[in-house]
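User: tokens in, sequence out, please.
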């Protein structure tokens, strides 16, 4: 619970970055410069920097799928923050033996809802000078992540809270939430909710299951359970998004012998 004593920390095995900053712009580098200065020697992992722009809802389901690869004790810098400079809170969360730093805008809420006994703190500190308000990733979240990563719990900068303010529905999201550079479309549906006899429907197309790409014909679109445990729409040696006209946010449905009508 939030009123428990502050946790004892050791040096984190890694800091993982999860953002919509992309690779063309200077933002990732600026964050890494802060981390290198304030948490020297702690490895930095680029978990994902291509979350759909401004889309905290998609990000919430992506981070829930991706963080299991991280070593317990890792610190996750999670920032998709279109409300920077506004009234949204900044938070620290402890969930499943990992630490998360980011905005309280729903981005961490799916992970929190699926975790066992998560704990939360509001970040009360703000950088000085006070007119530095346009890049909280670098100026607010990165320094807090760095302190956690070196084992220095920033008790003086935080207030325990009982829950996140913005909470998305933590059930599976029947939409496309990410398209990789191959044109594979990730959905927010966990792979265990469908089986080999089920069909996936998207943009008027109905797709069958294949276990791996090799089992599909060249150019054939299909669905499968991807490497992070989500239902993914793919095509063998082709862009499924291009073939089917798929975009982030498109609805998907699953139907089959066990599931009945698409949902």
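Assistant: Sequence out:
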């Amino acid at each position: 619970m939030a009123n428990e004593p502050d946790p004892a920390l050791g040096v984190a095995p890694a800091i993982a970055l999860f953002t919509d900053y992309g690779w063309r712009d200077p933002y990732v580098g600026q964050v890494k410069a802060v981390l290198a200065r304030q948490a020297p020697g702690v490895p930095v992992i680029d978990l994902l920097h291509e979350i759909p722009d401004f889309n905290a809802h998609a990000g919430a389901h992506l981070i829930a799928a991706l963080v299991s690869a991280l070593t317990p004790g890792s610190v996750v810098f999670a920032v998709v923050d279109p409300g920077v400079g506004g009234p949204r809170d900044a938070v620290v969360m402890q969930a499943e033996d990992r630490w998360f730093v980011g905005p309280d805008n729903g981005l961490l809420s799916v992970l929190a809802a699926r975790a066992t006994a998560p704990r939360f703190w509001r970040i009360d500190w703000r950088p000085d000078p006070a007119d530095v308000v346009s890049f909280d990733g670098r100026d607010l979240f990165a320094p807090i992540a760095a302190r956690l990563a070196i084992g220095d719990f920033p008790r003086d900068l935080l207030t325990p809270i009982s829950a996140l303010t913005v909470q998305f529905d933590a059930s599976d999201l029947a939409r496309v939430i990410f398209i990789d550079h191959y044109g594979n479309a990730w959905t927010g549906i966990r792979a265990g909710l469908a089986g080999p006899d089920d069909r996936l429907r998207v943009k008027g197309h109905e797709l069958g299951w294949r276990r791996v790409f090799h089992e599909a014909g060249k150019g054939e679109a299909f669905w499968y359970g991807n490497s992070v445990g989500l239902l993914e729409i793919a095509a063998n040696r082709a862009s499924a998004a291009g073939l089917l006209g798929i975009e982030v946010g498109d609805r998907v449905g699953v139907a089959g012998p066990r599931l009945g009508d698409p949902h």
